[in-house]
Amino acid sequence: MEHVVAAAVIDAHGIVTGWSEGARLLTGHAAEEAVGRAAADLLAEDPPRRADGEWTGSVVVRHRDGHPVTLVVTACPVLGADARPTGFTLTARPPETAEATLAGRAFQQASMSMSVFDTRQRYLRLNEVACKVMGVPEEVLLGRHFPDTVREEEHSLGFNWHLRQVAESGRPIRYESWTGAPSLNREHAWTTQMWPVREPSGEVVGVALAAFDSTEQYLARQRLALLNEAAASIGTTLDMVRTTEEVVDLLVPRFADFVSVDLLDWVLGADEPPPVPDGEVVLRRVAHGSAHEGTPEAAVRLGETDVHPPFSPPARALREGRAVRIQAGEPDFMRWLAERNARSPEGRSHRHGVHSVISVPLRARGTTLGVLVGVRIAHADDYEADDAVFAEELASRAAVCIDNARRFARERTTALALQHSLLPRGLPGQAAVEVAHRYLPSGSTAGIGGDWFDVIPLSGSRVALVVGDVVGHGIPSTATMGRLCMAVRTLADVDLPPDELLTHLDDLVTHLAAYDGVGEDVAELGATCLYAVYDPVSRRLTLAAAGHPAPALVLPDGTSELVRMTPGPPLGVGGLPFEAVELELPEGTVVALYTDGLIEDRDRDVDRATRELCSALTAPAATLDALCDSVIKAVLPDEPGDDVALLLARTRALGADRVATWDVAPDPALVAVTRQAATEQLTAWGLEEAAFVTELVVSELVTNAIRYGAPPIQLRLIRDRNLICEVSDGSSTSPHLRRAHAFDEGGRGLLLVAQLTQRWGSRQTDRGKTIWAEQTLDPHPG
Fold first, then answer.
1. Angle formed at CA 170 by CA 168 and CA 174, multiple of 5 degrees
2. Cα angle at 756 between 754 and 761, to 5 degrees?
């Protein structure tokens, strides 16, 4: 049949007047059946309109047994004496006869799907690949309308629409699609080119197409797109669990129907990495996800550990350090699936339809952290070598993000532990103030900051209130904070005024910066600090700031205000002075000291936040602790970007009934009189048991002031939690404790004072110095 050629003659009225044997072979109609009939009665479909003259094209005739037959027909007009056509001679051959030519064979053997349609979307020709895609021989499709050969689905409707567009517009179309085909068991990517087929006159008589199966290229682009997306979507936080969840969200369902991420236990703790075991491997499930609701494939709950036998994909991946693929039918696959199903609740098989598994180690910086497992159920394709390469690349990126989160968590834990060890855990009881405090470490990825606070008891029942903030975050910032905290305590013990203390602290920061190699950029090790001293006897608050926010006051009448002060430069700038401010406060005033994290943020207005702070401080609260909580809740955003330290101190006052003062003339004969006055005061306070030590202390300190000091001399007794004895004089020379030799007449007084009292010391004043000593009082006298 491939080489049969038919001939027929048709008169001007469309009646068949001649019929060849080849025509009988192609159509099944004998000459006696065809001759004399209208040619149109032999057609299965109306032929397309043709121009006058010779033409060639496809015509669909009705075979004698009823099925359509597509023939390539060439028509030549038969001219009469007047040169007018009196009929046509037709020659016809099957389309297969084109394969006799080199071009025909090239069309038929092309590696891509190629087809030819007429302008009504009827098949005229298909090559071998097109027939394989459609799943039927060419003769079944020839002459049939395309929509009648496929199911009515979105991609089929789109294909037919493109055919019509090319036929109607006469313009070629190129497009890409991800569709199935009748003979394919899964969807493929196609790059399709359609173009019009024209007569020499330019008339469109058909549409030809070539469709290239670009599935591999499409999947490669998809994998590359996933890797690019991974760079943006994995590691958005420095939280290990969230990072593993981001990996799962990225891969399900595009790469796998089920994905799990299991980590070695040491990764979630603070231990050093042990060697990967050769046998069974214990992993902890951190994240998993599924294309099915409820993640029914999981045999392990989140947070639980699982023991993987040596043959299992996770154990092999960890041991071999590469991606491991197993497919349905392989012995290890069947053993692994049976072991998984045995672990599932109630023995149910959660993995019906699983046909391919890939397991990839999570390795970062030469350290194995865990394993990622992907399972395909609905995906038609098994995991291939290209999938393994992709999975290893993605797992490598994910592992770096997980390791970054691990390192951040470890550093954060270390910094918090260091900071908590340096911050005061339990503030000592004070007669001067009642205190409450809060410290909130930042959840920012920048790490823990260097915020700190302290309450330091001073001589004379005074107390120092300190808040500070070191530039930067992490362990270096915390270590610097510890240095400054200890330095402030040391300088406070010297009893320096606030402005002088900050000057010394500024020098220290400058030296630290130079010692640590920061060089001229001292601000890299800079810090802010507010130092305040409250005296409950005079009710005076003296304070100075180094680049730190001014404190807020809440007066007993319920009004609040910021302290008006000129903050000096941050510590470490050097060369600029610090100014002290002195206030007299009513008893019961609340002093609020805080770090800038409470009111400053890049998305907040500082002035507005400060007003919110002053307003929150005036809210009714049963205790200072409750007030701390209400202030934090009212002022801070839900996710503060910096550490916050808040210190509240409610002032107390020591009344005249708890303080006794005597002016002492510089006469050694008056020492006994002064000692007697002190004894009588102790009796009035009911502290007779302290009289012996107090007489000795008063006698020694007053004698030293008369002998070595300068007028004016003053004795002051303060009855607080301790009994404090202070002797002031006009000399700035401080006494020194020394050990007296056997034949020395003096030098034993201060040594005796030091041994009999809880502590003693001296401080400089505007008019000289003050020597003081404290005795512990029995909290339950009598």
1. 105
2. 30
